[in-house]
Amino acid sequence: MEKSKQNSSARVGILDEIRGFAIICMVVYHAMYDLKYLFGVDVPIFFDSWFDVIRDIFAGTFIFISGTVCRYSSNNLKRGAQCFFIGMIMTFVMPFFTSGTIYFGILHFLGISMMLFGLGQKLFDLLPSVVGLTVSILLFILTMNVGLTVANGAVTTGYIGIPHLFQIHLPIEAYNVGVLFPLGLHDLSFSSSDYFPMLPWFFLFIAGSYFGIFAKNGSLPKFCYPTHIKWLAAVGRYTIWIYVLHQPVLYLIFSLIFH
C-alpha cells in the first residue's frame, strides 16, 4: 500500500522519457520540413508516404501521454489556457518568418483538450477506467477518416466508421462552413503548417487520461516509475517550450548555413 501511495505522488519516469523521445522526433521532422519547403533542400525519405505513418505514431504517442499527465495536474484549465495562448502567439508570429501559418496546430489542440478535460473531468470519471479507455480508443478509430479525400481527381467526403466494415459519410456542406476546421472539417483550400484537429485526436488524448489513472495509482509495472535516462526525461518535462522555441532556432541555424 505504501508503494502505491509513493508511486501516485511521483512522476512516471518512462512517460517523461517517451515524451522526450517523441518531441525530439518531431523536431527532426520539422527540421526536414524547413529544409525542403523553406530552403529548397530535398530529403526524400522524410516525405515518402510511409513516413507520414511514422510521423502520426510519434505525434499520437505525444498526445496520449499529454492526456496521461493531466491526471497529475491540479489545474488543467489554467494549463490549457496557457498552452492555447502560446499557440495563438505562434499563429500571429509565424507569417513574419515563413509563407505559411498555423491555424490549429498541436499547441492549439492540446490547449483546448486540457481545458475540455478540466471542465468535464467529473463526467469522464463516471466511466470505469477500463471502459473509458476502451470507448475512447474506439471513438478515435471511428473518427480517423472524417477529412476530405481526393483520389483520381474525385473528392470524397469523410466518414465515421471503420474501412471495409461500415461508413457513415458526412454531408459536403459541413466542409464548406469554414469555421469547423478545428474539428477536422474543411474544404480543399484550407492549409495549415501544423494541423491537429479535435477529431480524431481528442479521443486519443482522453484515452491517455484514463490510462493516467492506472499510472497515478501505481498499477503500472515497477520498471515504469524510475527515471532511466535523465537527460531524455528532462526533455520530456519541457516539451511545450521546446516546441515553441525549436522552429525559430532551426530557422536561424539554417539561415546562417544557407544564406
Structural class: mainly alpha
Distance between the termini: 61 Å
Q: How many structurally independent domains?
A: 1
Adjacency order of strands in the biggest sheet: 1-2
In percent terms, what proportion of residues is strand?
Answer: 5-15%
**Integer-rounded radius of gyration:** 19 Å
Task: Report the biggest beta sheet as strand number plus sense, adding barrel if it closes.
Answer: 2 strands, antiparallel
- Helix amount: 55-70%
Q: Poorly predicted ranges (pLDDT <50, ≥5 residues)?
A: 1-9
| Order of H and E elements | HHHHHHEEEEHHHH
Q: How many helical elements?
A: 10
pLDDT averaged residue by residue: 89
Quantity of strands, as a count: 4
Overall 3D form: globular
Q: What attributes characterize this protein structure?
A:
single chain, 259 residues, mainly alpha, two-stranded antiparallel sheet, disordered N terminus
Concise synopsis of the structure shown:
The chain is mainly α.
Task: Explain what the structure shows.
This protein has one domain (2-143, 201-258). It contains ten helices and four strands; from the N terminus they run H-H-H-H-H-H-E-E-E-E-H-H-H-H. The longest helix is centred in the N-terminal third of the chain and has 25 residues, at 13-37. It is mostly helical.
